[in-house]
Amino acid sequence: MKKFAALGTLLILTTALAAAPKDTLVVQLSSDIPTMDPGVTYDTASGEVVENMYETLITYKGASLSQLEPLLATAWKISNNSKTYTFDLRKNVKFHSGNTMTCADAEYSFERNLVTNSAESGNWFIAESLLGTGSNANDDKTITWARIDKAVECNNAGQLVFNLPKVDPAFLAKLAYVGQSVVDSKHAAKIGEWSGKEADWKSWVGKDLTASKLASQPSGTGAYKLVRKDANAALFTAHDAYWGKKPAIKNVIIQKVPEPAARYQAFLRGDADLIEGTGRAGDTDSVKGKPGVVWVEGIPNTSASAFFMNQNIKATGLLGSGKLDGKGIPANFFSDVNVRRAFSYAFDYAGYIRDVQDGQGMQRTVLLPDTFPGYAANVKKYTLNTNLAKAYFQKAWGGQLWKNGFVLTANYRAGSKAAQTAMEILKKNIESLNPKFRVNIQSKPWSEMLESSKKGQEAMIVIGWAPDYADPDNFMYTFYSSNGYYSPRSNFKDASVDKWLEQARSTTNTAERNRLYALVANRAYEQAPYILMPAGVGYLFHRDNLVGASKANFNTMISFSFTGTFWKELSKK
């Protein structure tokens, strides 16, 4: 049993609790929270808590994906042919440390992101806007302190000024991303983070902030602050000096409960207000229609998921013999397009929609939400076809693959029933084609899988992408460009695709962008770099005493996907 004391109240963090108190929100997840440092927050599990401790300059208005409104900023203006952005900042805002937020904190936050800009973070896309490159100073020697310092600065009026090297129509939307939150610069420097000065900036270039001191000792301006965290639970409490409306929920408890049955039981008892489910089929069977449960249908799905088939596997531990001898696979196993097509034809998309998504899903043509501009609906799709899968396997590697067989080891996120089931479907279908084919699947902690996959060490994983900002480039470039964020996980490279994607991000002509994205989608069908997971129709469920969670105010850009809102907008009756 774990105990947390907060403001004189003893909170027992177990699933054996009585119903969660009215002033306390209890959320149960299947896995851990990788980081609490906004400078490296780039997964939804981290974002769910970071966005409630920290705040950005601007945010999305209500459920809109296109309208933005002030948060830590109060107003802004655009000048210099859309290359200069000037922000007025909110006054009398207090950090959790007690420090008062100033323009210097905002400048420090963005400069820190540009300086560190590691492979673990999402700072590549803000660096592209402010420096003209997604690289850091280690990878691009033309990046100097002078360039970083000029990109974001405070003027004599205390306004925050961004100076862009070229027009970026998505810049404002990028500023709403949780990773661009304002951090407490004095607190950060005091605990041993970057000083914010030119003197030591080079020693922080590309530094992984996942386990930074700020990650364990956060200080934001958000409505909630961290009380304490261990391997199994984290406790947050309302920030008494918060500048905005005081939240009705006083305490938020995030618990790690790997077993789905335990999460369902706690939820139905009322011990947990919100839980991570196991997918539509499991959630429908376990909680829909049960007493005390509210189920909301039709939530927009703006994420995209896929099986990654890594064309350059860097972990020899997953390769077995490392050869096509029936006892393993070579590191470039998936570099043969025939292998990728065979795997794509071996997955039962319709069965997954039927059994896992309870019939509430759709097959997309490309890894882009179908509600986004640029989605190409007329591109061909793979379907389960064992004859074609067999034919492509027989072509692969000059016939040696079919003759000798293979052993592939694939990992999936621990606690994710949907990913596990998808792997089991693929394993069954592939192994049925040839008795010499073997697919071994195993679970792996989420944080470990994120780390190994970005190093190219995973052979095959199921992983998804939630939008950082509402523009097709955020998906198409991420998945398909050889310079995209996910490139190290797939090692897919196609010269034509790279050219089309660069052209699409350099024009504001919508029709031209759509044409280019259609070219990419058709080429991706031919090359099959990914097995596209069907996209489920969104839904949410919560205890019936929770107020503030609804389809009307659900914003898919909010990381806290349980309600599509910030914690401060919730209450309990």
From TrEMBL:
Keyword flag Signal: yes
Signal peptide range in chain numbering: 1-18
Domain of life: Bacteria
Gene3D superfamilies associated with the record: Dipeptide-binding Protein, Domain 3, Periplasmic binding protein-like II
Keyword terms of this UniProt record: Signal
Cited Pfam families: SBP_bac_5
Domain Solute-binding protein family: 68-486
Entry's family note: Belongs to the bacterial solute-binding protein 5 family.
Protein name: Peptide/nickel transport system substrate-binding protein
Organism: Deinococcus enclensis
